[in-house]
Amino acid sequence: MKRSEAPIVVVLDRLVLLLMLSILAAILTAAMTLQYVFADIPCPLCLLQRVAMFGCCFGLIQQLRTGRSERGSGISLVFALLLLVISVRQTLLDLFPRPDHAYIGRAVFGIHMEVWSVFVAVALLLGFAIRFALFGAPRAAPETEGSMMRRFARGLGIYVVFICAINLLSVVLQCGIGECHTFGYRLLP
């Protein structure tokens, strides 16, 4: 690789990371919109899938902040694998109808959320694989403090922390300190 190409590779790498983080933030926002607007209360496995997605987000935020190592990408990969395991388990549980059991929540474009989570996990793993294949492991320093990409990454990171806090509050209201259920919010009258 020529010396003059390195900054372009680093910028493209950052753009890929920002795109991944933006898509995950949009998915989590859509899930919470379904919960609050359409009263689709998430099941315990759905809540675990959100935890895995937030873990992926925080790994991406870490990767965007440092850029010197691939630790953030490693964190995201671990959570993407966790997301895949949880969502495949739930999809397999709901594959065949059982007595007194129905899908929880709405279908989006005819596909239920746990199946979408399988697609998201596979897309994340594929995205990281393609990123490493194309860009290797760029170990460049993060952008200068005032750059537009850095400001966007910081703002998106703050947004993810905000929706994570809202989600945490929602889980406490739904579950209290006991077992979670999908019938309502335990701590609300």
Structural write-up:
The protein has one domain. The N and C termini lie far apart (63 Å). Helix 1 (6-37) runs antiparallel to helix 2 (44-66) and helix 2 (44-66) runs antiparallel to helix 3. By secondary structure, the protein is mainly alpha-helical. It has a two-stranded antiparallel ribbon with strand order 1-2. A hairpin with a 2-residue loop joins strand 1 and strand 2 (111-112). The protein has 5 helices and 2 strands, in the order αααββαα.
Class of secondary structure makeup = mainly alpha
Total domain units: 1
- Residue share in β-strands: under 5%
Q: Please write the string of helix (H) and strand (E) elements.
A: HHHEEHH
Shape: globular
Extended strand count: 2
**Spatial ordering of strands, largest sheet:** 1-2
Distance between the termini: 63 Å
List the total number of helices: 5
Are there runs of 5+ residues with pLDDT below 50, and where? 1-6
Q: Assign a percent range to the helix content.
A: 55-70%
Supply database-style keywords:
two-stranded antiparallel ribbon, single chain, 2 strands, disordered N terminus, 189 residues, mainly alpha
What order do the helices and strands come in, and which of them pair?
Elements: H1 6-37, H2 44-66, H3 71-93, E1 107-108, E2 111-112, H4 113-135, H5 148-175
